[in-house]
TrEMBL record, chain A:
This is Iron complex transport system permease protein. Belongs to the binding-protein-dependent transport system permease family. FecCD subfamily. GO terms for molecular function: transmembrane transporter activity. It is found in: Cell membrane.
From TrEMBL, chain B:
The chain crosses the membrane at residues 31-52, 87-107, 119-140, 147-168, 180-203, 224-248, 268-293, 305-323, 335-354. This is Iron complex transport system permease protein. It comes from Pseudonocardia thermophila. Pfam families: FecCD. GO terms for molecular function: transmembrane transporter activity. The lineage of its organism: Bacteria, Bacillati, Actinomycetota, Actinomycetes, Pseudonocardiales.
Length: 354, 362
């Protein structure tokens, strides 16, 4: 018995994996496939629908036979970049939301909890007030710098407590830093009415006027963040059992959390830089996704990304249609349309706790 | 039943019990000390805030006047002009902090303050609605918007809280569902506020923005009375109801097993929280962050397992009064007090989080 016993690790390896119920697996696959189809449809709608009515034939011609007509220019230089920014930002926010809720184990956490939105807002306001920046392209780097600095501050402050960055200290440090940065932003905005005038349009969150340059600026960051996020899914599953259990399973909790914060900062910072602070996607998408996939992050992350992209595009298209020829900003439409839908969903389904 | 009555009263080892008739409390010196210190800071802050202004009155003179002495001129300035503002601040801060302590304890989540789960967003939306659209009707609309603002905010806050509660109701209200519904409603109402801010004239937007941040500017006795009444009614109710909070910290099932009527207790406690923060918001706007930070600071100051209601009340009042003092005096222009509550509350909370860790590690 003593000599024949295999090493402990081998026992663990050879143990059969607990089978995933087929109904669960089917539901996950259906959700993933359905969302992919939905996303393609939304991209098409986002290109085809807008203030200027363009027939489907003309839309098609703008892609295959570009001749430089007005329609072609509208499609290629306005609507396609805008759609790309929407997909990137939506996916990034959905992913970042799932990550932050996993790392803080708090259903109330959204990417803004790391101070990303508040930091971006403060630095953008400083940019407007001190440097007189008023162009969308100018805001991008200010917003990114602010988002990054705030996230670093939250992580460092949240790690000073016992046992490094625990869910509670991260959440509280995030809330405290967010409130403080928001206070500084408010103070500047209230002192200078012109800054308020520029700031209030950025603060709503919009996709209008985002061109290919914006998409190119944020795409590398979102790409890197997405890779890190997917790579950290198994570790997040372990963290969901609690820090102690994760440690005993061989995970370096501090390092995992640090990597997670880097990913969240890249994703949410880039999204905020591209289209302003949008709170709703990151907060709500993971809850909806979780009700389809269950708590397994390997499924939750991709589904959250797709769902975020779909939600942002739908809201953007609706915002273009409802008050034609004017537009309603995507941040407003998201919450006004998404809010009731979310409440309905919460009432109907049994939501899976974080 | 008879068995339960004949049991000796519960004891906490090593702690003396305070018994007054049927009520018994555990005597905790630290809670009493922290509470007294909080009250001292509050009184000092109030006296300073009342004393500083165009006519300076020293702290002892303010205290003497408040106790009934002083000359008529000082009496007029202190009681007639300056006290109502400071008192509004103290009461509003206390009410928000109390509401925050209750919601955080019920939901078992430090982020679940009333302004996160949508209880104050309705008040904000209603108030901004009145400010922005009321201005469209010229001077009549302006007057109506000034007079009707607190009322609109009160109705808006109560309506949103009622809507959240009703929508979260499915054979009882479960904490998690309540929070999620609150998030959804909160997001919608904030979107309405943002939309109103975008379509408003920029001067109205600035006025609305000031209100959203919470301001004590020009608050008189008519703002003090409603909050005082709400506190006088709701705080005793909350303290009586709060004896079940300890059991609610476990889980719903454990609390039921201990004989707590979970749904009823939670509903009543939530109602008191809604009442407190709605009235407070109507008086001074949704002072950002007080409801979140004061209970968390109080919890760490007394070393409790959940936010303590009484200490939270004191800390909320002290925080708001000191913030108002700074908002009026420390900067060139007067800032809305809500901005300053965040600037002094946040670093203190961060300091407490960091210090807690070091002591344990040592």
């Amino acid at each position: 018995m003593t000599s024949g016993a295999p090493p402990a690790a081998a026992v663990v390896r050879s143990a059969p994996r607990p089978p995933v119920p087929t109904s669960m697996r089917r539901r996950r696959l259906v959700a993933l496939a359905g969302l992919l189809v939905l996303l393609v449809g939304c991209c098409f709608a986002s290109v085809a629908v807008g203030a200027k009515e363009i027939g489907i034939g003309d839309v098609w011609r703008a892609f295959v036979a570009y001749t430089g007509t007005e329609n072609d220019i509208v499609i290629r230089s306005l609507r396609v970049p805008r759609t790309i920014v929407g997909v990137l930002a939506g996916a990034a926010l959905g992913l970042a939301g799932a990550l932050i809720q996993g790392h803080t184990r708090n259903p109330l956490a959204d990417p803004g909890l790391l101070g990303v939105n508040a930091g971006a807002a403060l630095v953008v306001v400083i940019g407007i007030y001190v440097f007189g920046v008023t162009s969308l392209l100018g805001y991008v780097w200010f917003a990114f710098a602010g988002a990054f600095a705030a996230a670093v501050a939250v992580f460092v402050l949240g790690s000073m407590g016992r046992g490094g960055p625990t869910p509670v200290t991260l959440a509280l440090a995030g809330a405290a830093v967010t409130a403080m940065l928001g206070a500084f932003t408010s103070a500047i905005v209230l002192v200078d009415v012109q800054t308020l005038d520029a700031y209030r349009f950025w603060a709503v969150g919009a996709l209008a006027g985002r061109d290919a340059a914006v998409a190119a600026q944020v795409a590398p960051f979102i790409g890197a963040g997405t890779l890190i996020a997917f790579a950290s899914a198994p570790a997040l599953n372990a963290l969901a059992l609690g820090d102690d259990v994760a440690t005993s399973l061989g995970h370096d909790v501090r390092r995992t959390r640090f990597v997670g914060v880097v990913a969240i900062t890249l994703l949410a910072g880039a999204a905020t830089a591209a289209c302003g602070p949008i709170a709703f996607v990151g907060l709500v998408v993971p809850h909806v996704a979780r009700s389809f996939t269950g708590p397994d992050f390997r499924w939750l992350l991709p589904v959250s990304a797709l769902l975020g992209a779909v939600l942002l595009l739908v809201a953007d298209v609706v915002g273009r249609v409802v008050v034609r020829p004017a537009e309603l900003q995507v941040g407003i439409v998201l919450a006004l349309v998404g809010g009731p839908f979310f409440v309905w969903l919460v009432r109907r389904r049994k939501m899976v706790q974080v | 039943m008879a068995l339960a009555v004949s049991l000796p009263p519960a004891r906490v080892p090593g702690r003396r019990a305070l018994r007054i008739g049927p009520v018994s409390l555990v005597w905790r010196p630290r809670v009493a000390l922290v509470g007294l210190a909080g009250v001292a800071v509050l009184v000092l802050g109030l006296a300073l805030n009342v004393g500083i202004g165009e006519v300076r009155i020293s702290v002892p003179d303010v205290l003497i006047t408040l106790l009934g002495g002083g000359d008529p001129g000082q009496r007029f300035i202190v009681v007639g002009l300056r006290l109502p503002r400071s008192l509004t601040g103290a009461l509003v801060g206390a009410a928000l902090a109390g509401a925050g302590a209750i919601t955080q304890a019920i939901v078992r989540n430090p982020l679940a303050s009333p302004d996160v789960i949508g209880f104050t967003a309705g008040a904000s939306a209603a108030a901004v609605f009145v400010i922005v659209l009321g201005a469209g009707f010229g001077s009549v609309g302006f007057t109506a918007s000034v007079v009707g603002l607190p009322l609109a905010a009160l109705i808006g806050g109560l309506l949103s809280a009622f809507a959240i509660y009703a929508l979260a109701w499915r054979k009882g209200v479960q904490g998690f569902r309540l929070v999620l519904v609150g998030i959804g409603i909160n997001a919608m109402l904030i979107a309405v506020v943002e939309w109103l801010l975008v379509i408003a004239q920029v001067t109205d937007a600035a006025r609305a923005y000031t209100w959203i941040n919470g301001s004590l500017n020009g608050r008189g006795w008519e703002h003090v009375v409603p909050v005082a009444v709400a506190l006088a009614v709701l705080v005793p109710a909350a303290l009586v109801l709060a004896h079940v909070l300890g059991a609610l910290q476990l889980s719903d099932d454990s609390a039921r097993g201990l004989g707590i009527p979970v749904d009823k207790a939670r509903t009543l406690l939530l109602l008191t929280a809604v009442g407190l923060c709605s009235v407070a918001t109507a008086s001074a706007g949704p002072l950002a962050f007080v409801a979140l930070v004061a209970p968390q600071i109080a919890q760490r100051a007394v070393g409790a397992a959940r936010p303590p209601i009484t200490i939270s009340l004191i800390f909320g009042a002290a925080l708001t009064v000191i913030a108002d003092l700074l908002a009026r005096t420390a900067f060139g222009a007067e800032l809305p007090v809500g901005i300053v509550t965040a600037v002094i509350g946040a670093p203190y909370l961060l300091y407490l989080i960091a210090r807690q860790g070091r002591r344990t590690r040592a």
